């Protein structure tokens, strides 16, 4: 937010700092949403250009991040119309739920032991790789939400504004995206290869 | 405790962890989870999975910004600043 203010005030160095901070973020979004590096580079550059061109229209600097992602989202959308995209399939909650084994007092979840996870750096970086791959493979409506909410840490309201959907839809899609990621990582931790079960 | 109760809890867990649920529902979930080992286990796994996501660094960096592209951005920035100053008087 301080960065947004200094950019708007025209402070020395603000332009460079803004480009340095936001360009990788925008690129991550366009790359995950477009899928191709070249397209993503092009759309990221278009986004930055539009951000600067429209800068005089930004009224609330505290909303800079959501405003920038909104522009990125529109730029991706324009690009995408030129190519063909597979129709989105909905993730069903049931399929993402863990299964139970046994019943009554003995009832257990078929799930990995996650409790030792924070300590093991090697497993953690392995999981990060798998995580990125899993997010890339999510249907795009889920991918956009988990990227904005969990990776960029926008609020539910900001994410709804960026994507032009209701807050309830953000919550539903986020939960399904998280469950899908959790399931994939869980499968890996149980000794699977991270491929679909 | 029935598996169906757990599934109801599972369905609300993101909103629960994000503190987006009304207080009374939150308390119901708290009291269910308190003595339900499968839910404790599942919450733990979901929390850690979200944590991993939050600390996930971008897989791909953009290539270095070419000088002409930077110059275009800078020109657009300066133009917008000038407009803004004009509007502010
Ligand atoms: Zn339970």
Characterise the protein shown here.
The complex is a heterodimer of chains A (197) and B (89). Chain A contains 9 helices and 2 strands, in the order H-H-H-H-H-E-E-H-H-H-H. Chain A has 197 residues and is mainly alpha-helical. In chain A, strands 1-2 form a two-stranded antiparallel ribbon. The longest helix of chain A is centred in the C-terminal third of the chain and has 23 residues, at 167-189. The radius of gyration of chain A is 20 Å and the shape is elongated. Chain B is mainly α and 89 residues long. Chain B has a single domain (6-88), classed as Arc Repressor Mutant, subunit A (Orthogonal Bundle). Chain B contains 4 helices and no strands. Chain B has helices at residues 3-17, 23-34, 37-54, 67-88. In chain B, helix 1 crosses helix 2 (23-34) and helix 1 (3-17) packs parallel to helix 3. Chain B is elongated and about 65 Å long. Chains A and B meet through helix 2, helix 3, strand 2, helix 6 and helix 7 of A and helix 1, helix 3 and helix 4 of B. The site of zinc ion has 8 residues of chain B, from helix 1 and helix 3. Zinc ion (ZN) is lined by residues 1, 5-6, 9, 32, 36, 38-39 of chain B.
């Amino acid at each position: 937010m301080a960065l947004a203010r200094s950019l708007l005030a025209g402070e020395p160095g603000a332009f460079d700092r803004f480009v340095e901070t936001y360009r990788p973020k925008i690129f991550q979004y366009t790359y995950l949403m477009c899928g191709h590096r070249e397209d993503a580079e092009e759309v990221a550059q278009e986004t930055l250009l539009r951000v600067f061109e429209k800068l005089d229209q930004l009224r609330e600097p505290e909303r800079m991040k959501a405003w920038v992602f909104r522009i990125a989202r529109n730029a991706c959308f324009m690009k995408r119309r030129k190519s063909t995209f597979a129709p989105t399939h909905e993730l069903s909650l049931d399929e993402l739920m863990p299964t139970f084994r046994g019943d009554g007092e003995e009832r257990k979840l078929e799930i990995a032991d996650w409790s030792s996870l924070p300590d093991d750096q090697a497993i953690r970086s392995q999981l990060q790789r798998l995580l990125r791959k899993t997010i890339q493979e999510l249907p795009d409506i889920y991918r956009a939400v988990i990227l904005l909410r969990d990776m960029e840490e926008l609020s539910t309201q900001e994410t709804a504004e960026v994507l032009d959907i209701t807050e309830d839809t953000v919550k539903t899609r986020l939960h399904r995206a998280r469950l899908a990621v959790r399931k994939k990582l869980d499968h890996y931790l149980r000794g699977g290869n991270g491929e679909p079960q | 405790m029935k598996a169906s109760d757990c599934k109801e809890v599972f369905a609300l867990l993101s909103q629960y962890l994000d503190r987006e649920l009304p207080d009374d529902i939150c308390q119901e979930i708290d009291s269910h989870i308190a003595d339900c080992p499968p839910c404790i286990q599942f919450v733990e796994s979901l929390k850690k999975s979200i944590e991993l996501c939050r600390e996930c660094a971008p897989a791909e960096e953009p290539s270095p910004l070419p000088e002409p592209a930077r110059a275009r951005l800078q020109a657009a920035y300066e133009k917008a600043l000038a407009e803004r100053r004009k509007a502010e008087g």
